[in-house]
Inverse folding.
């Protein structure tokens, strides 16, 4: 559903008056590839060979630019750029651009993500290079809200997941975050399925990726 | 957005407990191909060569089954089956299966579609073979509601389109239809964006296609 959400936001961000104005898109979505989380956290099988196979498939179809609507997959960003032969929009760079250009976004910035995205410092390294400080949920909140919400989205229980994500956001706002990054692509799917007033304080990494992709695709 | 809507419904219809349970999908979405409507109605350039190129691309990626979330494109169904080398789920067959298996669906059945889908009898021929009678909007209603609604979806104005589709549905219900087929894949996108109480009387061809596709993919 994260891929569907990305495609929806890609279409929404594209200025179009008719079919022809929309971007030509090829999608390679193979959810059977090894878990990104298990590979990082439990030394599981690496998904890199299958992600490179995906990049080869996209290149064969003439793709000129790649977006990957999975935050954790960006752990292998450098290898994918080096071996995939295609430019890839980095989801965290896209989020940083949103944060820097918005006057409504103030620090410190909260981050909701998978355990693996946190452990691998996928956001922390790029954000700290830009001087942006971050706040995260404590382990207990992650176990209680974020991880189960991600699993619920994969099982299709969106509103139930949305309620959990809302609670994780609340906790970060209480902890001092002024803005919260939805840094796993299941999270905006969950939150968009409920009417959540604090949604305004969230930066949607999927939407940021879509915006950066459209912007680069249209030059 | 019709492709996004189809993918969303495909994911929703798939029984899944985790990533791996979801179907592997490759998508080829090239909105620059010639207009299906113009080809049928105005003797414009045929989209068939580019649709066959799409089928070749999907076959190269290992696709075993194809769904095409565009009703009008089914005008070229026989050629695509013959020359594409892949089984294709026919959207009208998927709708007929829905109609036949549902006890809530009663005739006569209304049809909302593009002018080309109507003119080419894409629904009429298959439905009448199954003995299902149909009712359509008059030309004036189509010009006023259906055609502008489709264009509005392509431009991203979903709720405005939704209001027009609702009026087209109302007119068919008044004309005696007991059920209305949303027989152009922009129409459910429009109607899903508004809270429309009569949605219950509509058969969504996109959802029917997704259901038939999941059912065939899972054997």
């Amino acid at each position: 559903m994260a891929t569907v959400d990305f495609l929806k936001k890609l279409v929404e961000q594209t200025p179009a008056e008719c079919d022809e104005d929309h971007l030509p898109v090829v999608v390679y979505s193979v959810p059977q590839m090894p878990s990104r989380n298990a590979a990082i956290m439990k030394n599981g099988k690496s998904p890199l060979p299958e992600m490179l196979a995906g990049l080869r498939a996209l290149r064969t179809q003439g793709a000129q630019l790649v977006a990957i609507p999975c935050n954790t997959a960006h752990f292998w960003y450098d290898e994918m750029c080096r071996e995939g032969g295609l430019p890839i929009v980095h989801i965290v760079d896209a989020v940083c651009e949103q944060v820097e250009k918005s006057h409504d976004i103030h620090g410190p910035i909260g981050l909701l993500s998978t355990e693996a995205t946190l452990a691998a410092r996928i956001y922390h390294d790029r954000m700290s290079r830009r001087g942006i400080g971050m706040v995260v949920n404590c382990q207990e909140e992650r176990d209680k809200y974020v991880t189960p919400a991600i699993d619920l989205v994969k099982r299709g229980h969106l509103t139930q997941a949305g309620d959990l994500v809302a609670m994780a956001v609340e906790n970060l706002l209480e902890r001092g975050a002024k803005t919260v990054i939805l840094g796993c692509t299941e999270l905006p799917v969950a939150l968009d399925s409920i009417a959540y007033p604090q949604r305004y304080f969230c930066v949607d990494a999927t939407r940021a990726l879509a915006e950066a992709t459209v912007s680069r695709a249209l030059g």
In short: The longest strand of chain B covers residues 25-29. Residues 15 and 82 of chain B are 32 Å apart (CA to CA). The mean pLDDT of chain B is 95.
